[in-house]
């Protein structure tokens, strides 16, 4: 059985999310390639460094659009709750890791991982939240 989105808002959300993720991956790889092979300097460095962050900001906006467009209050509630768990989990894990880094000599972890942690915790929390309502 295929899992097809039930609402038009959900379908639009998934299409937008897919497109934004493709743009993110392509921009991240291209930016990395430019830095490794062309060695830009000056203001171009700052401009190039920001390019992969733009789709990330877009992805967060896409989630906000989905919440605004979804007519099913239950689905909106699930997304909002899972986002809160994602934010809480990402902030908790990054705070714990930073203290481990400062006091216990754990290796440095890039701040970019906070975004990754957010999506991991959000993804884990959605089915758990849904189970609560069964």
Annotate the secondary structure layout.
Layout lengths: L7 H30 L5 H8 L2 H17 L3 H32 L7 H21 L2
Brief write-up:
With 134 residues, this protein is mostly helical.
Helix content: over 70%
End-to-end Cα distance, whole Å, is 21 Å
The beta-strand count equals 0
Uncertain spans: none
Structural class: mainly alpha
The geometry reads as flat
**Strand share of the residues?**
under 5%
Structural Rg: 18 Å
pLDDT averaged over residues = 94
Counted by DSSP, the helix tally is 5
**Order of helix and strand elements from N to C terminus:** HHHHH
Protein described:
81% of the residues lie in helices and 0% in strands. The chain is an all-alpha fold and 134 residues long. It has two domains: 1-71; 72-134, no CATH class.
Keywords:
5 helices, mainly alpha, about 0% strand, about 130 residues
